[in-house]
Amino acid sequence: MKIKIKRIDKSLPLPAYQTAGSVAFDLMARVAVTILPGAIGYVPLNVCIGTPKGFMLMIAARSSLHKRGLMLSNGVVIGDQDFCGNGDEYKAVLYNFSDKSVTVERGDRLVQGTFVPVLKCAWNEVDEMSAEDRGGIGSTG
Asked: What is the CATH number assigned to the segment(s) 4-15+22-117?
């Protein structure tokens, strides 16, 4: 699948799959950003991406991000098909859960992206659901 991509800083490489078995490509910081303890920082990821029709771009933390005292503040990022303009640079919104300032350096690989097929639904509103209640969230232990 060919994907349109625009790099803001062409001296940084394109996102890349790090191994033959990788299902997601790594995205990196375009600039250095220092995030204070207990604060949120916005790290530009150097790319505008043309997500194809029928897909979403899902961005998740790399498995090592927590070792730096950081996590994605919103869990995962869902990139819409129409977030693809020249100024629509993706950013990692990172929360520093440590007690020290954390500096993300230019070129650091922080998050990973993959394209996920999506289906749109049409709602069929009903007054009653036909299944029995399961007992709420966490009901299976």
From this structure: 2.70.40.10
